[in-house]
Amino acid sequence: MIEIRDSESGEVRLVVDADTLEGQALVGVRLEGDDFTGIPMPRVSFNYSYLRNVRFCGAQMQNAEFRSASLIAVHLEEADLSQADFYEARLLSCRLNRCNLSGANLQYTRLSDVDLRQANLRNANLNMAKIAGNLEGADLTGADLRGADLTDAEIGGAVFDGAKLANARIVGAKLKPVHAKLVSQVNRQKQRSKPVPEGKKSWWRFWS
Predict the structure, then answer these.
(1) 174 forms bridges with which residues in the sheet?
(2) DSSP SS3 for 35
(3) What confidence tens digit (pLDDT) does each residue in 132-185 have?
(4) Quick one: which H or E segment has residue 180?
(5) b/e map of 88-126 (b: 16 or more CB within 10 Å)?
């Protein structure tokens, strides 16, 4: 049996009749102030749940599910959320610095005032996501950012090597001079994605 306690008072808030939270379906629950620190819970499901001031610091949550969930002021620092599913979730004022989100699905996710400093977002799916917050030093190598909105994000020192950036909104983001190259990379991908009108040759073909 696992007891989930309030992070401040120590009061038991939730009792799960199991030896582990691995694969547990906690769908549609409402949790405020609960502390899951140190509890392994890979493949746990919090789909459609409301989580406020919940602590998952350093938690092992590989393949966890948060589809259409609302997370407010949730602590996920240094948590392993590799391959986690946040499809259409809403994250407000959450701390995800140094967490592992490699391969995670954040498609259509709304992230507002989030701390993603030095987070691992390698190969994550951020297609059509809206991110407002701190991404300084984050690793987005190979991430899918097509159609994503980063205009309210701080991306100084973030790594975008091999990222898919077609139609991403970067202009207006808090850029440092080194990221001017990133904006040009977005523009190049947009140009490559435009189809050549029928009956017209690309300019480089006139000489072939």
Answers:
(1) 154
(2) strand
(3) 999 999 999 999 999 999 999 999 899 999 999 999 988 655 555 445 556 556
(4) helix 180-193
(5) bbbbbbbbbbbbbbbbbbbbbbbbeebbbbbbbbbbbbb
Please give the model's pTM, rounded to 2 decimal places.
Answer: 0.80
Amino acid at 133: G
The tens digit of pLDDT for each residue in 90-132 reads 999 999 999 999 999 999 999 999 999 999 999 999 999 999 9
Buried/exposed code over 11-42 (b: 16+ C-beta within 10 A; e: otherwise): eebeeeeeeebbeeebeebebebbbbeebebb
Q: pLDDT-based confidence at 206, cuts 50/70/90?
A: very low
Task: For 105-142, give the DSSP string.
Answer: B-TT-EEEEEE-TT-B-TT-B-TT-EEEEE-TT-B-TT
Is there a contact between 84 and 103 (Cβ–Cβ < 8 Å)?
no
Q: Within 10 A of 184 (CB to CB), how many other CB atoms are there?
A: 11
What does the alpha-carbon distance between residue 15 and residue 109 come to, in Å, rounded to a whole number?
30
Which residue, among 182, 99, 179, 187, has the nearest Cα to 139 in the 3D structure?
Answer: 99
State whether the Cα torsion 131-108-94-135 is positive or negative: negative
Burial class (CB in 10 A: 0-12, 13-18, 19+), 67: middle
Determine the longest span between alpha carbons in the chain, in angstroms: 77
